[in-house]
Amino acid sequence: MTSLRIDALPSVDLDCNGRRLGVALYLAETFGARLRGLLGQPPLPHGVGLGIQPCSSVHGAGMRFALEVWFLDRSGLVLGIRALAPWRVIVHRGARSVIEWAPGEAQRLGVAVGDRLLQLPRRSAA
Asked: Choosing a second label site near 12 at 20 to 30 A (CA), which of 5, 52, 90, 99?
């Protein structure tokens, strides 16, 4: 299985309760991209996330680094923010999608359970 280049995936801007977060959120939209996820990738830098939909569980099989996982419902409501260690599995009932980040990203960005996230079209560089 070839490794996925996260920066080759489509990306969107992310809004939290009306506040643009200024992150790069890449979307794993195909079955292959969702299956590979971050396997074989270096650790994510701050400000870069991988969105996976549909998804309500995440595994760290084969991963060499920890992740922070945000679980979202269908409307973008943050249901849970959890740490995922390598070789572990986490599940969140009711989740429709997840966003995988470097550990500590929720605190850094000021995002908490109960916030609402929206995906916005990328602004063109001017």
From this structure: 90
